[in-house]
Design a protein that fits this description.
The protein has helices at about 5-10, 25-30, 45-65, 65-80, 90-105, 115-120, 135-145, 155-165, 170-185, 190-195, 200-215, 220-225. By secondary structure, it is mainly alpha-helical. It has a single domain (about 5-225), classed as Orthogonal Bundle (Catalytic domain of cyclic nucleotide phosphodiesterase 4b2b), CATH 1.10.1300. Helix 4 (about 65-80) packs across helix 6 and helix 5 packs antiparallel against helix 6 (about 115-120). The radius of gyration is 19 Å and the shape is globular. The termini are far apart. The model has no long low-confidence stretch (mean pLDDT about 95).
């Protein structure tokens, strides 16, 4: 699937895809979020989710999502892990921190949509409390986007070492968790199913297995001799 837009272009809404721009919210996250340097729940993850949600907006267009709904979705993506603790567990508290961060920085023009945006943030709480079939399209998009970090090109540093650090686990333990996790991935939206095909997921599972083979097998004699 063809993708478009870098982060500054998305923030400025150069393509006129959604309502307004997100400059105020970008500055709020960049200048005030306390988790931007964490190993996994960091700037890269938050804005990767934003980038993916924007791709979904392009995929569905204004026939399925209004410009206002797109704006709500993109704001939620930017704030969904605002002030995350960087620790395993207590995701309900992380959601509370994100919602409070949004409430501190919400623009006057967006205040009447605050409940809608907060509901989208709550859709990312894990383990999930809201069944996927109960979410609207925007809720399913942000959940699919949040799930797909391991399917990106630069995933080992972000996912393996990042989560190992936050979960206080060894990187190889997190590697061993990836196969079962990706085998169980079930995307809800047609956008995500086309963005991350079954072949893509199978390829990432094979890549994980190859990493584990390198880490666990005895090195060949030629390697030892060298």
């Amino acid at each position: 699937m063809k993708t478009k837009g870098n982060i500054p272009q998305i923030i400025r809404n150069n393509g006129g895809v959604y309502q307004g721009d997100l400059i105020h919210y970008f500055r709020a996250v960049f200048n005030h979020a306390r988790n931007l340097r964490y190993p996994y729940h960091n700037f890269r993850h938050m804005f990767h989710v934003l980038w993916l949600c924007y791709q979904a907006c392009l995929f569905y267009g204004k026939l399925r999502l209004t410009p206002r709904e797109m704006r709500n979705l993109l704001i939620a993506a930017m704030f969904h892990d605002f002030d995350h603790s960087g620790l395993m567990g207590d995701d309900d508290l992380n959601i509370l921190r994100a919602v409070r961060g949004l409430e501190r920085h919400i623009l006057e023009t967006d205040k009447k949509f605050l409940p809608d945006i907060e509901l989208l943030i709550q859709a990312t709480e894990f383990p999930y409390k809201i069944p996927s079939q109960c979410l609207d399209l925007s809720g399913q998009i942000i959940r699919d986007a949040d799930l797909s970090q391991a399917l990106s090109a630069a995933w080992v540093q972000q996912v393996i070492f990042g989560l190992a650090s936050e979960w206080n686990k060894k990187p190889i333990e997190v590697f061993k968790m990836q196969g079962p996790f990706m085998s169980g991935l079930k995307f809800q939206t047609e956008w995500a199913k086309q963005m991350f095909t079954k072949d893509d997921i199978a390829g990432k599972i094979r890549e994980t297995e190859e990493f584990l083979e390198l880490l666990e097998e005895e090195p060949p004699l030629s390697s030892v001799a060298a």
